[in-house]
Amino acid sequence: MKISVIGGGPGGLYFSLLMKKAYPAYEVAVVERNRADDTFGWGVVFSDGTLGNLEEADPESYRMIRESFVHWDDIDTHFAGQVIRSGGHGFCGLARRRLLAILQERCEQVGVTLEYQRESAGPAEFADADLIVAADGINSVTRRQHADVLKPSVEVNKAKFIWLGTTRTFEAFTFIIRENEHGLFQVHAYPFDAETSTFIVETDERSWRRAGLDAMSIDEGVAYLERLFAPELQGHRLLTNKSDWINFRTVKCERWSTGNIVLIGDAVHTAHFSIGSGTKLAMEDAIVLVSALKEFGRDVPKALEAYYDRRWLDVAKIQRAAKVSRRWFEEISRYKQFHPQQLVLSMMTRSKRVTHENLRIRDEGYIARFDRWFADGHGAAGVEPAPPPMFTPFTLRGMKLRNRVVVSPMCQYSADDGTINDWHLVHLGSRAIGGAGLVIAEMTDISRDGRISPGCAGLYKPEHAAAWRRVVDFVHAHSEAKIGIQLGHAGRKGSTKLLWEGYNKPLDEGNWELIGPSAIPWSAAMQTPRPMTRVDMDAVKADYERATKLALEAGFDMLELHCAHGYLLSSFISPLTNTREDEYGGSLESRARFPLEVFDAIRAIWPDDRPISARISATDWVEGGGFTEDDAVALGRLLKRRGVDLVDVSAGQTTPDGKPIYGRMFQTPFSDRIRNEVGIPTIAVGNIQGWDHVNTIIGSGRADLCALARPHLLDPYLTLRAAVDQGYTGAGVHWPNQYISVKPSPRGEG
Fold first, then answer.
1. Domains annotated on the chain, with CATH
2. What is the set of active-site residues?
């Protein structure tokens, strides 16, 4: 079998080594346009986990690599005059030139043919090969020539960066965040041998231009950076090697092979340097590709299919995490007002692969110091032991919460003409005694025709307030939770069956008229709503006012105005469902006009010492149109100016055409933006899976409260269990006297 490899970087060399080692009789040849000792960049980084893969694949090269490594466990972050260290991370670095030399040596030992300073015109010149492996990097000729089949996409990222070296050897992976008169600059630095460190400088384009770096030569720009980072360089120089200011490019391909041609490494996928090494990805590609070829022998098409099937998901996860990480650094100005402790936790957990608890396991002292700082600044000064972030108090107007856990509103579809019953008492009461700081009752409709289904709760008759008062009184008497109610109108999503009879399916009989901003049905199966007139708007506003008075009569601590998920007020906000040409359509300010009028009406009734929140959908999740994340920030500003106390940041469910991007804490980034760009408290929601996620989100400043829905359905006592799991028995968690027998001893006792 004849195998031609285009590209003599780590990926191409490692594949060639492993393949020739497995099949000595195969003819394996590498062509590389550069000299053997000529490479860009400085050092490469591997985690301890990656090293295990390399050891199993080729123990000899692993031994040589290991002997050349600089190893460190710590991450240092320099920001606002402080240096914060966390340990236990397990990194290894070595010079890229040294890695190439090791792989070249091993290739020669096993009989791989290496040809340098040969520019390849693409796979066509290797027509006699049984397999062509394109490891020709981010500027891959192969990818370009076969784009019609591979279907690549290339996203040019916003920030500018330059890859430099320095003669200062840092003792840890080092982040430096420095603001000057031109803007914000950050450094990613790490050692890779006894004398040199990588020194990557990144900044937004505006800062780059304001500093004049766009007009400077590389030497002039390096001199500017040496002055800027002089305190950390400590007299050492910055070094260049094919260095230039560039924008990182994220490469993805729908297919990774065509015929007998297969791509690996940067040729087929890239991941931003803030989360890992392209070298790691390329070498792991090589391991999986060789494994597939071993399994399927000369059946190259099957082997290439297996390679893709086994590899694409791992790469997709890394690219997703890298995108989130990259965006954090691109948007770092959002966090420059943070205390250094919070900025560091935000940075460390930016990709969602690392959490508060992960960091505690790695370095308990670091998290202990963080928790002490957070508690002291967030209402728990002097409390011993320092509570985890989730168990710190939070105050809105006159409402004081013991902790940051919220039971999210969850429709139960179990009311009778809006009147709730014992089911709701048990459902909400059990979650209140389960320890949550705030319980928000389900979407409660302001009128009979505003219901989603015949089973929806209401606040449009006097008896509704009495039924709700029973629940509120129970919560106040038997727990220390506060309880809020979410007021809403279903709009075009109304007159449907109960959830378990058919989600978003119209009733078989007994349907009522639907209203909305425009005559756009939810789906072809649903009724078309009647466009609202001014008379309709006044009537709906009056219904909200009546419901607010009944909520006050019932004794609720907080109101939430439901402006999300495609219900009436949400459908005014989205341009996909509001095509009006009057003063209630068009611009975002006009589309939000009626929801804000409703807010004004209920705020005028609701007592000043009780807060009102607004739940919004931060995106329609419709590509190329609809309500966007940027719109959500603008809406947050409108809500703040109007006097909304808290934004409950959800997303989607506004149109059946939406295509959500799911994952852990997948809606939290929307909360992060609104909280930190608008400057308003937020609730984060969306696949927040438990106490570790809550501690991470609250501690890192991505939200002020965390609302959990499905986890609370599974475990009403989620908050008490979180205290048990963390060995925490202090302030912020209330154990009912009836359950005191299972209250745990403090960590380290009993």
1. 2-330 (3.50.50.60), 394-713 (3.20.20.70)
2. 567
